[in-house]
Amino acid sequence: MKLLVIGSGGREHALVWKLAQSPLVTRMWCAPGNTGIAEERLAKNGALVECVAVPAEDLPKLLAFAQQERPDFTVVGPDNPLAAGVVDLFQANGFKIWGPNKQAAQFEGSKAFSQDFMERHGIPTAAAGTFSDVAAAKKFCAALGGKCVVKADGLALGKGVLICTSQTEAEAAVDEIMVSKAFGSAGQRIVIQELLEGMEISLHALCDGKVAKLFPTSQDHKRALDGDAGLNTGGMGAYSPAPFLTDAELKSVGDAILQPWLRGCAADGIDFRGLLYPGVMLTKSGPKVLEFNARFGDPEPQVDLTRLENDLAELLLASTEGRLASHELRWSTNASVCIVMASGGYPGSYPKGKVITGLDAANVLPNTKVFHAGTAKKDGKTVTNGGRVLGVTAWAKDLAAARNAAYATVEKVQFEGAHYRRDIAAKALK
Ligand code: AMP
Ligand code: GLY
Questions:
Q1: Are 40 and 20 in contact (CB under 8 A)?
Q2: Mapped to the 3 state alphabet, what secondary structure does 359-380 carry?
Q3: N or C: which end of the chain has fewer CB within 10 A?
Q4: Residues 152-189: tens digit of each pLDDT
Q5: pLDDT of amino acid 159
Q6: Greatest CA separation found in the chain?
């Protein structure tokens, strides 16, 4: 099978690494890919994965590439091409492609759509209102005592969510999104949710339009600094499993969310074939969905896919073809920990082009994988080329051992200004 993967981050490196192990895959391209992806080889025949200089968001160029090379199957990593309808476009041109279509991708593309869906179909979520009027929005914040989360409706590179603890902050947040238009047209409408407290977990469920297969829980670390201080980021590290739910509790949380979600999709005529990623807060009054994403997280798959025992290509094909019911997901009993090494300054502005050393020493370690996120090649050297640079991942028989191995590897890898959190998985080990 000839496979095209769309995207270039740590998530896509993890997808490519796992897909390259499939005996089904005989050739693989990644558009646009990154330095680490370009070093992956297929288990089937030793061929290198080929990175092609087509941006993940350029739908006409992606289609032209597919028409030229005729991939048998395409896998979409990031949210933007999904929201823009890359799945519909490829299908209309006769290509098999994994990911939700444009209608189904609205779960991530519009927070107002998701909030309305959750309320209509009885999915546990935060008390919320949707507004396109500034005064009405501020009044709703006041009714919540200013303790609220103000969210731009549309995609905003993960930055359109402002957490407020006072009415002053809430009014400033509403103004920032709706009046100053900090996130452009994504902020024409806003969703305001009550501020929930509890432990946050990431759920991932692979869906085929009829059934949803839940992954083990993982936990991301969204803030830049230790102790969940500092600014929100794309994610500074993750680990799996997250020990806050027993298997029975995970099943009951999954059912409470996924059963009404599947019924709602059927009732509304939404055919979701892809990965549903609910962000969930475990509150005193039960689990509540904060938001839905319509793709794998990043860095969650770095830890999930290093534990998955199935052939991922086979699973994604089954998801696309509506055959998931006959597949059981199998997970290694290992724990996996991913530590993101970021550029100095991230999530603010940061320099690029810093030479990365120590990758060769890290790459030979057992049960360890350094996933690339923002890297490039310059004069034969691997250099930094993004905010999140590497996802250093290790797996072992338990979380403590996996964490030690991941941090020992981080010590071997260096670039000027590198920063990473020292408390990844610490909550789980308390
Ligand atoms: P979202 O993109 O909607 O997941 O929001 C980004 C982050 O903001 C989440 O991962 C949570 O940490 C936080 N967040 C979002 N909604 C809420 C809420 N209603 N209460 C508390 N924290 C929230
Ligand atoms: N890990 C956060 C996200 O993928 O949205």
A1: yes
A2: HHHHHCCCCEEEEECCEEEECC
A3: C
A4: 999 887 788 999 999 999 999 999 999 999 999 999 99
A5: 80
A6: 62
Atom index in ligand 1 nearest the CA of residue 160 equals 2
**Which residues in 47-118 belong to E strands, given as ranges?**
50-51, 73-76, 97-98
Using DSSP bridges, classify how beta strands 190-194 and 148-152 pair: parallel, antiparallel or unpaired.
Answer: antiparallel
Q: How far away, in angstroms, is 117 Cα from ligand 2 center?
A: 21
Give me ligand 2 centre to Cα 139, in Å: 30
**Mean pLDDT, residues 94-101:** 98
Q: pLDDT tens across 308-356, in order?
A: 999 999 999 999 999 999 999 999 999 999 999 999 999 999 999 999 9
Regarding pTM above 0.70, the answer is yes
DSSP string of 190-256? EEEEEPP-SEEEE--EEEESS-EEEPPPBEE--EEEGGGEEEE-S-SEEEES-TTS-HHHHHHHHHH
